[in-house]
Give the backbone structure.
Amino acid sequence: MSVLARAENVTKVYPVGQVKVPALRGVSLEIADGEFVALVGASGSGKSTLLHILAALTQPTSGRVFLGEAEYGMLSDGGRTAMRRRSIGIIFQRFNLLPTLDARGNIEIAREISGVPAEPEYFNRLAGLLGIGERLGHRPSQLSGGEQQRVAIARALIHRPKLLLADEPTGNLDSKNSQAVLDLLQRLNRDFGQTTFMITHNVEAAAIAHRVLHMRDGLLVDA
Ligand SMILES: Nc1ncnc2c1ncn2[C@@H]1O[C@H](COP(=O)(O)OP(=O)(O)O)[C@@H](O)[C@H]1O
Ligand SMILES: [Mg+2]
């Protein structure tokens, strides 16, 4: 299989006052097209920092980041934003839906920002697959946590991103809703070939990922 996403010797140092906090200390990884990769590790080990760099949300301090042949890690904010809007979908632990828009509006605004034309058939298929077809007129406050996360997954996928990134997507859900979200992510990968990189805890990761990476103190390590 071909490599979709690649990080080469990525570091990230956060300046905090006079102190420099090294969050990533030289991380290299490859994610194959169609692969489901999970990342586990203790709190503070650098998982979210790595995901944010792959997401083009954060610039690394050094190192290189590629999607296909396109290198984007060191691009300016504008260049990284363009890459993200075109090719990357992101799901967060806290859903991050806009409270004033209903579910449909939350999904559609993401599509508009990406500059992708409306595709009603794809929208309906996605909403059906995610089980939110009956909830599209509801605002986030009227939806359960599980429903909000499923809307957020639809929002992340509406522009058909090459790479889906998920940062502890079940972290705010009870076990039943967690399982439903994991089943959906697995199905999107298995049935639609969605390349996925997910931060999670060990048990979930082992159950659905093709490969589990372990992070400790800013480095990928053997389990
Ligand atoms: N914006 C930030 N400013 C300063 N330090 C940060 C910032 N984000 C993360 N860190 C620090 O970087 C390290 C890694 O954090 P993070 O990537 O969030 O780890 P994880 O997701 O594994 O919990 C931690 O020491 C954390 O305190
Ligand atoms: Mg984190």
The chain has a mean pLDDT of 96. Residues 3-99+162-221 form a domain with the Rossmann fold fold (CATH 3.40.50.300). Strands lie at 3-16, 19-32, 36-41, 62-67, 70-71, 88-91, 163-167, 195-199, 211-216, 219-221.
